[in-house]
Amino acid sequence: MNYEIHINESHQIISATVTGVWKLEHSDKLANEMIAVSKLNGYTNVLIDHRDIMINIPYFVAFKRPSQLKVLFDEIKPRIAFIPPNGRYKLYHFFETVARNRGINFRIFKDQDTANNWLKTNDLD
Length: 125
Fold this sequence. Notes:
Elements: E1 2-8, E2 13-21, H1 24-41, E3 45-54, H2 59-73, E4 79-83, H3 89-101, E5 105-108, H4 112-120
Helix pairs in contact: 2-3
């Protein structure tokens, strides 16, 4: 799994474009790097783009992962816009529901423009 982190200073958005094959240890590393950027800049709006990632996880992993992320994100309480890979919308919709039930401000979007527009608003939902 490879990723690039970018900062949009004018809109105070931290974004990550992720490619390759998803692995838990790389996902944790990415989360920790984004948390460090958030603490450094004070930005809590996050865009994660998984359109070009290969992910094959069972639903029980998607069920457990938000609880793990909640612990990681507890210090910064980010607002996360997420773009899932094509063909995996159902899995990510399930993940979104679990994450929101765990208190993570997490939404999935089909394209980057819609995701960015949501992050630019003050909408809580």
